[in-house]
Amino acid sequence: MNIHYLTLFPEMYDGVLNQSILKRAREKGIVNYHTVNFRDYAENKHNQVDDYPYGGGAGMVLKPEPVYNAMDEINTKNARVLLMCPSGRPFDQKFAEELSKEETIVFINGHYEGYDERIRNIATDEVSIGDYVLTGGELASMTMTDAIVRLIPGVIEEESHLDDSFSTGLLEYPHYTRPREYRGMKVPDVLLSGNHKLIEEWRQEESYKKTRERRPDLLENFNEKNEK
Ligand code: SAM
Prior knowledge:
This protein is an alpha/beta fold. It contains eight helices and ten strands.
């Protein structure tokens, strides 16, 4: 998979994409990350990428030319072009699974007050990572990259994400490791029983219980799906 980031702050990606699983995915040749500073594609001598809004009002608006020019330079044939914005489609696990099957993804990261409306025409999707406003799209696109890349086959063991929260439709069951008892807190007996059927039932019950307590909204969908 090729992932391109159109950004005014390419250095922000250095730390995140060069660590841990995202770094290993690149080293294994599964994914390539490319940052493009669209300031380099501005059409004026001061490389200005933003301007005052027509009609007045607070804040600056990203101009269309630098973004369109930068897009002309990268191969976006069949790419999913994702425009980061708080008013976009909410990002979730299902969306991450869908995007993990793409060959090319382009993230367009806004800053300032927002985009000139015409920039929306080059996006295939507008995406939000939650109901809050960030100063720019970079952290949002890094969050999404992390969620997407770990789902690409070969990046981590498939088993480790099959049971993840949201993948099953429920929140994940509790995990324990050694020691058996720590500061008076004991590992549930069932996990030490060696009985795989009982362990599986316990995990399913715990997942269900946790989801009912914390996210009853998820449970409605889960029940509906499982009744069919
Ligand atoms: N005035 C805009 C609005 O109300 O929708 C917010 C602009 S925000 C300060 C600047 C940029 O940060 C946005 O253009 C977008 O790229 C990014 N951004 C902010 N919040 C985001 C979110 N929840 N999800 C994705 N991107 C976000």
